[in-house]
Amino acid sequence: MFVPYWRLSGFYFFYFATLGCFLPYWSLYLKDGGFNPIEIGELSAMLIGTKIIAPNLWGWIADHTGKSLRIIRIASFFAALLFAGFFFAHNYFGFAWITIAFSFFWNAVLPQFEAVTLFHLKNESHRYSKIRLWGSVGFIVAVLGIGWLLDSQPVKQLPVVVIALLISSWFVTLITPEAKTIKHETATVGMLQIIKKPEVIAFLLVNILLQAAHAPYYVFYSIYLKHYHYSTAITGLLWALGVLAEIVLFVYMGRLLKRFSLRAILLFSLVLATSRWLMIGWCADYLGLLIIAQLLHAATFGGAHVVAIHLLHLYFGGQHQGKGQALYTSLSFGVGGMLGSYYSGYFWESLGSRFVYTMAALCCSIAFMIAFIWVGRENVNISKKRRAKSRILNSDRGLKP
Asked: Could you tell me if residue 278 is inside a domain?
C-alpha cells in the first residue's frame, strides 16, 4: 500500500514549526507591543477559541463533500494571507479581529489533515506516530532557530518567519495526494448516538481538562522563565527539550501500544501531567527540575494525544472520522484551551503563577478520576477480542499466535 510518507510528514513539519513560533514567542511579541497579561490572555484565548467553531464547520463540509484536502488547501492559503494583516494592526481591536480571522482558517487545517493521514494509512494506523514525529522535529527547529534569532534581533521580526512557514505549509498541501476513502454501508451508527455514549463524553471531558491545564504553559511559560532571568536561548532549549522527549516517545509508541492498553497510557500520562505542573509552578528556581518537567511533555502531550487519536478512530470509525477529529479539536484545544488561557490571564498577576500552575495540576487530577472511571475500559475488551480472534485465525491457518 502506497503512503505519501514524506509529503504527510512535511505538512506536520511546517505546521508545527509555525506552532513553534507561536507557543514560546507570541506572548513575548504581544508584550513587546504593549499588551498587558489580561490582554495577552484574551488574545491567546481568541486564537484558540475559534477551534470551537471552525473545525466542526470544516469537518462537516469535508465529510459531506469528501474533499478534505481541497478544504485544507483553501484554509492554508487564507491563513497565510490573513496573518499578513498583523503588519498593519496597531491596537488591541485590530489584533483581535485579525487573530479571529486568521485562526478561523488555520484551526481548520490540522484536524482535517489528521483524518487525511489516517485515511492514507487505512489499517496501518500504528504508523501514525512515525509520521507525526516530524511535526515535533519542525517544532524543535523553529523553537531553537527563533530563540537564537531573537537573541540578536528584535521580536518584531517574528511575523515574517511565521508567514514564511505558513506559505511552506500551504505548498505541501498542494503536492499531497487526495486520500481515497473507504465506502461505508449506509446502516451505520449516527454521530449523535456516538457522542451520547458515556465513555465518549468522559473522553472529551478528560481532554478539555488536559488542554485547560496546558494553556498556562503555552501562553505564559516564556514570560514566566524571563521573570526568573532565564535567557531567550535557555527558554528555547527548554521548549525544544520537551518536544524532543515527545519525538522519542513517538519513535517507541508502536512498541508501547503493543505492551500497554490505551487506558493505561492515558492514566499514566495524567499522573505525570499533574506532577509536571506542580514542578513548574513551585520549582522555577531549579533548572534541573524544570528540565525534568520538560521531559514529562512526552507523556502529558505526546502520549495523551496518540491515545486520543486511536480512541477517536475506535469511537467514530471511518464515516464520521472528519467530524470526530473536529469535535475533539474544538472541545479539547478549543474550549479547554480558551478556558485555560482566560483563567491564566486573569489570575497571573492577581494570584500569581504558582496558583495558576496549581490549578493546572488540579485539572489533570480531576481528568485522571474521570478517565479512571469511564475512559478506555471498552478498548481493553476490544483488544482482548482482537487478540483472541487473531490466535484463532492463526491456528486455523497453521500459524504461530
From this structure: yes
Distance in angstroms (rounded) separating the CA atoms of residues 183 and 204: 27
Cell of 255: 512498541
CA-based R_g, the chain, Å: 21
Q: Which helix (H) or strand (E) holds 100?
A: helix 92-121
Q: 200: number of CA atoms within 13 Å, CB side? A: 17
Residue 3 lies in a domain: no
Q: CA-to-CA distance for 27 and 31, rounded, in angstroms?
A: 6
Q: What confidence tens digit (pLDDT) does each residue in 289-339 have? A: 999 999 999 999 889 988 998 898 888 876 677 778 778 888 998 899 989
Q: How would DSSP label each residue in 311-339?
A: HHHHHHTTTTHHHHHHHHIIIIIIIIHHH
Residue 149 near residue 157, CB atoms below 8 Å: yes
Whether 384 is in a domain gets the answer no
Dist. CA 124–CA 382, nearest whole Å: 17
Nearest Cα neighbor of 244 from 297, 308, 292 is 297
C-beta atoms surrounding 386 within 10 Å: 10
Count of H-run helices and E-run strands, the chain: 18, 0
Selection from 124, 122, 105, 130 nearest residue 15 by Cα: 105
Asked if 26 and 155 count as a contact pair (C-beta separation under 8 A), the reply is: no
Looking at residue 94, which CATH number applies to its domain?
1.20.1250.20
Q: How far is CA 17 from the centre of its chain?
A: 13
- pTM to 2 decimals? 0.77
Residue pair 262/271 in contact by the 8 Å Cβ criterion: no
pLDDT in tens, 58-67: 877 877 777 8
